[in-house]
Amino acid sequence: MENSRQPEVDGMCDEKPIHLNGISRETFELFLEFMFGRYVDILCFHIDELSKFLRFCNMYQCSHAREFVISRISSTRYRFHPAKLINLAIKYHVRSIFPYAFQQLAETPITELTHAHRELMGNEVFLNVIYVQAVLDSHHRIVAVEEPKILMHSNECQDPTGCNEDWHAIWWNGMGRFLLDGRNPQLYDDAVKRFKELQFGHVSEGCKDLMFKILHQGAAFKHAQQFLSETCSFLVEKLVFEPEPPSS
Ligand SMILES: [Zn+2]
Fold this sequence. Notes:
Blueprint: H1 25-35, H2 47-59, H3 63-75, H4 82-91, H5 98-106, H6 115-145, H7 160-180, H8 188-195, H9 205-217, H10 219-239
Helix pairs in contact: 1-2, 2-3, 4-5, 4-6, 5-10, 6-7, 6-10, 7-8
The site of zinc ion has 7 residues, from helix 7.
InterPro entries: SKP1/BTB/POZ_sf (IPR011333)
Protein name: BTB domain-containing protein
Organism: Suillus fuscotomentosus
């Protein structure tokens, strides 16, 4: 009888391929390569392709493949524009790549962010990037002009007044300039590294060591990093939902 014959369904033979809507041949090849344990050189894949692959993994609940692609994206994250990584994180619920991307955006001059970048990261992230940059900029300027004071001079310090004056002047000429230089602004760590190479005039060796120790503890500097991570955590909680567990 006609009805007893097995119907020819997609995937039964080469003439009846499986059509996966929105999934390109390359994406499916990538999936097969992963499934059959062959080395996949993800470096040759465009981020849009990887993005489609993540969509595929989500759609078919292939959590192992998903973890694999995420780990490869993370290890080569420097290749991608942070706005794209943010887009990927929000769209495919990948929390782990968000903080790196947000940190990169916070360090990218606003003038280098195009309309396309803004579209990718979405308004909320974009507004937060502007807000964070404004706050960090103001914090930068405060740190640049308010040097940590030498509260107690070392025993060997022969001239505490000269020591204070020179510390103040060298801070302004060193840290002040490094942090505020519009053409070549330095991050805190780099600024401190260059600052330590300067000549310190009447600042005694003991006082210098003491103050460098305080700089290394980084109380003032750490505020900026803490503020950035708190803003980032807030956005992750709000925008990047945890992937839904597979339904049983
Ligand atoms: Zn001193």
